[in-house]
Write a sequence for this structure.
């Protein structure tokens, strides 16, 4: 029963693994970025559920509200910051994807990095890093 | 109580605030931007120098941001080791910025030029904050500012290879940041605090040791990608070799080191090691990877044909050294690791800036093209040779001192296999460094390679290179000024 009680932890860890799998395995770079966002969301879900309280109230201490019923505001503040960071990373990565697509004409990582071995200005030195 | 209590916060915030203001200046007077960008970093450096000897007896200088006392508010906490690293960051960023003025105007132009300086300042301020902070979540925020500005700086020239290298860096860097955030979530759920000093106390008597060990492993993987620890280093050679040379100097000389410092801090300040067997075995695994990094980086560096690729692989190898100092778990080993951060920062920044000089003056990137280079560019070549000597760790230089302490620390810790690895690493370094010195000084140049206008790089590009290479000599000869206080600080930590 304890396991079922903490189902939100299980859900967030499952999402984390799905995201990580997508980032590592998928060849399409847009899908990789989607995987990245799933990972981020899973961590946000995990953190936000830490501060959740069934039937909780907003943590504003005016009018003699009962402190034991307040939700924990700290994870919410953290997630707000985390979302800003996640949006910036996604925006930057998408900008790079646009540049990549313009210059290579493909979104497939294999084709993107195969080019490293055959062509390019300093192609042949980098074969093993691809 | 004195004004110096407020120095750490100004050292961090002034570059960050100035970075935001810089675009306005760029809009009005683009010509002034490179000079204006130097001011906040010079300001931070001066504050950092004034702070020497002012760290109070209890071992750190705390600063409550917004006046909220530590366990609730965010705290900046500069101890002796952090102060030492902040000074390194200030010095090297300032020199790389001075180098940039002439170099970067050829690689990028127009609005991107201002963007370059804005990102440069953001990166410098974030590195200072990353080292100074005493709050785990704040550490994450500074790490993200640092990471985002470095992704953008790798891609700043916008050519195909740069964009691809930056994207590879993002693909490895972004998931690692998320792992760090997850680790922070784990330790918050287990202890209910984010302040590092408070965490140390609460972790010591926490019931949730399984959660904490997972958090620790996630921290090591997350920061390990940023620090390019061996199996997670794949982004480094591309990003470091393709980025503009001053940025390579920052990435290689500082970014990987402050990330290593983050692992150091998480290990010794937050998890206060030595308590549990599982933490120790995690650290043992890190030691094995670090030893592999020393050998792999050294061998790959020997195989490279591109100068900047070679220096980048040498960085992979040297990060291994620093980690071997940390995993030795002795005061000497940790002192060696810290001193190696100083030496590696100076020497690698110098090597990358020298490579930048070769690219700027002649457009040569390949090692073969450097044959006979000293005839035309003697100053650059001699600085390169001096920094290489420090990389190889030959006596009067700082590289020798740091490696001496690394080996001493590993002998005291009883890790004789790592002593052998460190010595083999030095031999590999000698092979890849002396090959270039041999090419530069003792080989005839190719027909027409060094003819025409016989000119070394401009003084504004030679001065930073020489300051850095003389720095390796200076801190080698005068190491007795720093080593005792570092040893004290490390004994205090253990």
């Amino acid at each position: 029963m304890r396991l079922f009680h903490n189902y939100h932890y299980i859900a967030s860890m499952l999402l984390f693994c799905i995201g990580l799998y997508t980032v590592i395995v998928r060849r399409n770079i847009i899908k990789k970025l989607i995987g990245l966002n799933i990972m981020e969301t899973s961590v946000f879900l995990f953190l936000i559920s830490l501060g959740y309280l069934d039937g909780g109230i907003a943590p504003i201490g005016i009018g003699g509200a009962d402190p034991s019923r307040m939700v924990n505001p700290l994870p919410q503040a953290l997630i707000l910051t985390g979302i800003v960071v996640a949006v910036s990373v996604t925006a930057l990565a998408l900008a790079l994807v646009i540049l990549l697509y313009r210059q290579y004409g493909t979104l497939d990582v294999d084709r993107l990095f195969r080019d490293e071995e055959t062509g390019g200005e300093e192609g042949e030195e980098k074969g093993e890093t691809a | 109580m004195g004004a110096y209590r407020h120095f750490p916060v100004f050292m961090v915030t002034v570059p960050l605030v100035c970075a935001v203001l810089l675009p306005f200046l760029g809009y009005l007077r683009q010509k002034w931007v490179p000079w204006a960008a130097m001011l906040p970093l010079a300001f931070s450096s001066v504050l950092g120098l004034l702070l020497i000897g002012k760290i109070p007896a209890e071992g750190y200088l705390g600063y409550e941001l917004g006046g909220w006392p530590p366990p609730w508010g965010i705290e900046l906490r500069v101890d002796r080791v952090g102060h030492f690293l902040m000074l390194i960051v200030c010095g090297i960023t300032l020199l790389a910025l001075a180098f940039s003025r002439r170099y970067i105007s050829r690689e990028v132009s127009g609005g991107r030029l201002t963007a370059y300086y804005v990102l440069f300042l953001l990166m410098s301020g974030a590195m200072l904050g990353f080292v100074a902070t005493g709050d785990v979540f704040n550490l994450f925020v500074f790490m993200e500012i640092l990471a985002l500005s470095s992704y953008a700086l790798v891609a700043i020239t916008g050519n195909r290879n740069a964009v691809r290298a930056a994207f590879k860096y993002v693909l490895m860097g972004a998931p690692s940041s998320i792992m760090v955030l997850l680790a922070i979530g784990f330790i918050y759920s287990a202890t209910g605090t984010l302040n590092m000093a408070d965490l140390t106390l609460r972790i010591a008597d926490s019931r949730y040791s399984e959660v904490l060990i997972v958090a620790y492993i996630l921290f090591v993987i997350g920061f390990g990608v940023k620090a390019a620890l061996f199996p997670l280093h794949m982004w480094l050679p591309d990003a470091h070799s393709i980025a503009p040379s001053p940025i390579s100097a920052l990435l290689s000389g500082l970014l990987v080191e402050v990330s290593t410092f983050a692992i150091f801090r998480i290990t010794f300040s937050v998890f206060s090691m030595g308590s549990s067997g599982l933490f120790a075995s995690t650290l043992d695994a890190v030691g094995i990877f670090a030893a592999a990094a020393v050998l792999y980086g050294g061998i790959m560096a020997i195989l490279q044909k591109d100068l900047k690729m070679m220096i980048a692989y040498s960085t992979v190898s040297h990060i291994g050294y620093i980690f071997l100092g940390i995993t030795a778990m002795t005061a000497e080993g940790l002192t060696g690791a810290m001193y190696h951060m100083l030496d590696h920062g100076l020497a690698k920044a110098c090597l990358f800036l020298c490579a930048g000089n070769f690219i700027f003056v002649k457009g040569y990137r390949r090692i073969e093209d450097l044959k006979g280079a000293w005839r035309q560019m003697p100053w650059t070549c001699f600085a390169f040779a001096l920094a290489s000597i420090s990389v190889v760790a030959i006596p009067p230089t700082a590289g020798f001192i740091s490696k001496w302490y690394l080996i001493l620390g590993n002998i005291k810790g009883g890790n004789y296999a790592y002593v052998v690895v460190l010595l083999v690493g030095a031999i590999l370094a000698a092979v890849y460094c002396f090959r270039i010195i041999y090419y530069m000084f003792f080989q005839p140049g190719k027909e027409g390679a060094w003819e025409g206008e016989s000119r070394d790089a401009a003084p504004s590009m030679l001065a930073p290179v020489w300051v850095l290479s003389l720095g390796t000599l200076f801190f080698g000869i005068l190491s007795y000024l720093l080593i005792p206080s570092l040893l004290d600080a490390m004994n205090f930590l253990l």
About this structure: Chain A has five helices and no strands.
